[in-house]
Amino acid sequence: MSVSKEYNLRRHYQTNHSKHYDQYTEKVREEKLQELKRGLRKYLSGSSETACPEQKQVLANTSPRERAAAVQPVEDVAGNLWEKLREKIKSFVAYSIAIDEITDINNTTQLAIFIRGVDENFDTSEELLDTVPMTGTKSANEIFSRVEKSLKKFNIDWSKLVSVASTGTPAMVDANDGLVTKLKSKVAMVCKGSDLKSVCCIIHPESLCAQKLKMDHVMSVVVNSVNWICSRGLNHSEFTTLLYELDSQYGSLLYYTEIKWLSRGLVLKRFFESLEEIDSFMSSRGKPLPQLSSQDWIKDLAFLVDMTMHLNTLNLSLQGHSQIVTQMYDLIRAFLAKLCLWETHLARNNLAHFPTLKSVSRNESDGLNYIPKIVELKTEFQKRLSDFKLYESDLTLFSSPFSMKIESVKEALQMEVIDLQCNTVLKTKYDKVGIPEFYKYLWSSYPKYKNHCAKILSMFGSTYICEQLFSIMKLSKAEYCSQLKDSQWDSVLHIST
Questions:
Q1: What does each C-alpha distance from 387 to 164, 183, 355, 366, 480 come to in angstroms?
Q2: Does residue 90 sit within a domain?
Q3: CA distance 447 to 443
Q4: What confidence tens digit (pLDDT) does each residue in 155-204 have?
Q5: Are residues 448 and 468 in the same domain?
Q6: CA 396 – CA 435 distance, rounded (Å)
Q7: What whole-number distance in Å separates Cα of residue 77 and Cα of residue 202?
Q8: Is this prediction's pTM over 0.85?
Q9: Which domain holds residue 158?
Q10: In whole angstroms, what is the distance from residue 487 CA to residue 494 CA?
Q11: Is the Cα dihedral 368, 369, 374, 376 positive or negative?
């Protein structure tokens, strides 16, 4: 359910659960509710007892060994997974970590640490390494201490640490006293000559850049209108009825959330396509919006719809598990190239890539008004993604080894790369399977280059995996789950990821 309102809850219950529970009424219904609550408490606390009678019957028909395995506490299950993770980490030839933090429902800051490692067969693994409650100060020293303790718990070799991905907050990336600076010092001390790479989450700069398009004179009208309609039950019901009577393609509006950038594009698109219905409804309720009759305002809205949809497409393509950092960087470079193209097109009033704006444009100079927005967005992207520029030659050597200019390759790798570029058998394999699959077929006669590729393959391009964990945490850490001990909660999270 998008919003926990009575109407949504009732609809969800009637759609999914009424056929099972409508048979219970009055006192019997109350007793059934208490039984379900007791079962939830036992499940969350790892009790071996089972709440459901059906499940008890299933367990009664199993052997003692199967029954013991089926009801083992959550901590035992997680313990087995921790041991497997320790064994897996021992096989890594290179690994990176991603770190992010969030405040849970108990107002405790949780630090999430994920590890991404590559073994000698170029098999990649992404795993939750640790979640640490930050009950004290949240300084770089404290965060470094917690990270160091977590790595020590798994006996991880510091010399194999390649990069750290973070959200780019001062505590993480401050040049003098940030976490990344301390990690670099630690790695340099353990392994002289090693240079720890620092990557600011690609998705965060993308969202921050997108907020440069705020255009408050448009967003304020949209947000206030949507909230006025959707937050009042009667208004929402009557507006939904109006859309139905007018045979609108949508049944309602969507809420806008400042934190969730993706919601902006979806809200704007639906608002634009329901513009006439919204104007009619607001006027009939004595709250007319003169902006909805202004051609200039509508064109600004249309441009914002197109631009946010382009940004949403980029954002979605950057998300997901096991993304390769080079592919994510390629997506950003492609978007920068698109911005350059759009700037040129708008100068000629070519609105081919802005269909919503094109549908309301009446003048040949309409596109010129939005060139400054494109330029500002392009500049912001270039500035915030400077981290990846530092490693661009290393990334290109991984993704396009056969087209890389040898002068751009580090001297320690040049001999092996020349041999590789002249090897027609491997070139054929590269063309056939692509990366990263190609590196599984790389011969042992390229040890330095293989090590370089393992390092790049181990890099996180974003902290998306941490944010996904926080989504699981918010959904799971409810009234009873929030009472679990830290060790139990770690076990639940490790199983769920």
A1: 12, 17, 34, 36, 42
A2: yes
A3: 8
A4: 888 999 999 988 777 777 777 778 888 888 888 888 877 788 888 877 66
A5: no
A6: 12
A7: 34
A8: no
A9: 76-201+462-496
A10: 11
A11: positive
